[in-house]
Amino acid sequence: MICLICRQAETLEGLTSVTFERDEFRLEVKRVPARVCPSCGEAYVEEEVAIRLLSDAEAKSAQGAYQAVHEYQ
């Protein structure tokens, strides 16, 4: 797919980091599979990945975590 941000390049399979923040809660997930634009760096995750990321973030927040960093599994 052509990058929706820069419209300069075709996105490629790669990895990215995703950060969630709400009030004092902060979660960073590294090595998330995504399509990444080689021109501007914008990353796009598939729907299934996004659902899993959101679910994991909600679970960590509910557990009372304030800051966490982990790799996508």
Output the radius of gyration: 14 Å
Named at the architecture level, the CATH assignment is Roll
Q: What fold name stands as the CATH topology?
A: Ubiquitin-like (UB roll)
Beta-strand residue fraction: 35-45%
N/C terminus separation:
25 Å
Percent of residues in helices comes to 10-25%
Write down how many β-strands occur, each being a DSSP E stretch of 2 or more residues.
Answer: 4
Folded structure, characterized:
- The protein has 73 residues and is an alpha+beta fold.
- The chain has one helix and four strands.
- It is elongated, with a radius of gyration of 14 Å.
- The model has no long low-confidence stretch (mean pLDDT 94).
